[in-house]
Write a structure and sequence with these properties.
The chain is α/β, with parallel strands linked by helices and 305 residues long. Helix content is 32%, strand content 17%. The chain has an 8-stranded parallel sheet, with helices on both faces. Strand 4, helix 5 and strand 5 form a beta-alpha-beta unit. The two termini are 26 Å apart.
Length: 305
Amino acid sequence: MRQLDALSSPRFSQISTFARLPFTKDLAGVRAAFIGIPFDDATTYRPGARFGPMGIRQGSRLLRPYNQFVDAYPFDELNACDAGDIDTLPGYIQDTFSVVERGIFEVASRTVPFIAGGDHSITLPVLRALKRIHGKVNIVHLDSHYDFWDTYWGKKYTHGSWLRRALEEGLIKDVVQLGMRGSTFSKDDLVTQKTLGITGFSVVDLKNSPEVVLEKVNSLYGKTYISIDIDVVDPAYAPGTGTPEVGGISSYEFIRFLRSLSVDIAGLDVVEVSPPYDLSELTSMLAANAIYEVMSTLAKGGQGS
């Protein structure tokens, strides 16, 4: 499976697949598959993340075969493909979760899923599927928000409560949160992070002491899932998102961090990309490049540079 050759077929031609890779549901021999989960009914502020997979595919058209910073041809080495989208059920959160769990179980049983959301609630059914395959996994959670609140308006399933549900359901082992910033509901949120056994690094840590953060992340043992809320990046670089927070990391700091990962990757999601709020595809292109960089580290056996 190979990308369309941009020297023969202009990048603005042909149908949109991730990085112009082949679209296929046949995952035999595939080591990495892009899959979309277009769902945003669990958002608590601005909608639009249901268009995230579509936007990320468009934003991936400039991705080329060779990653010079990791010395990898990720698409060739992983025989990567675009496996399409999971058909969600708009208006029905828990029914959608069931569909997502089944769909990701089928994909992740055969290959490593690289998922485009969708709002962050979709990570919960993904983790349910991975638990059935790998047992409990570690999670590296890049975000500007904690996402461990118990309820919103008395409802337990939102994009701000998925992590609390995952911990309650025993889906995950070690949790490392990166990039937290902005105002919170209460000072108690800081206590809750410790009570839940989460290792947290704020945006200050990520900016000023990235080596310390990476040492902790790369020390995780066993299968590790990477969940990226694009709002971990400052809205100056990623404006197309539902709950933007000022004062985040830059796109370069974000990509440099991903290139330095060295964990046993069980899968990855990039969520909360909302193209209706984007400018010149900045956010969609950044999300596409994040997926590319983690595919590159997987192609190199998890050893980035």
